[in-house]
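---------- Forwarded message ----------

FYI, see the N-terminal E2 ubiquitin-conjugating enzyme record below. Original note from H. follows.
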Amino acid sequence: MSSMSPSEQNKKDKPQKAEIINDNQQPKRKCGKILRRLQKELMGLIKEPPPGVSVDTESISQNLSEWKINIAGFEGTLYEGESFQLLFKFNNKYPFDSPEVTFIGSNIPVHPHVYSNGHICLSILTEDWSPALSVQSVCLSIASMLSSCREKKRPPDNTLYVKTCNKNPKKTKWWYHDDNV
């Protein structure tokens, strides 16, 4: 038999309004919205992927905050027949903060806006990010960037950048000066 009064039992059964979910002191409610958004985007990508895009579902089953996305070079472009892999990392501010997106693996595209360490110089990944954008729109933008390339070459400052950059490309202050690639 319980020694608690009915009012004490009610207090015990009610969930706390701001339960802590991690060291950053974020309420569960906020985390739940992020997870729902990520799950919705993931299901959309799996069910109806854009042309040349596929999700590495095995990698995502381990961690919903890191996605590996496969992207194929479009027919009739310099990257036709090639395949690449992107790593998307989501923080607890997504979709209000852009994901960290890099090329990974042994086949990093040789492109004027892609560094040999996989970092991508693309404005929607930093200052032009909007919560209205999605993983799908980022994939389409990257595919478009690759498709419009006229010459396979690395950025002119590749060697210096790779030696001195931060591990997180979002911490780079990019200088967007060449839209003609």
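H. also flagged this: The first helix runs from residue 6 to 13.
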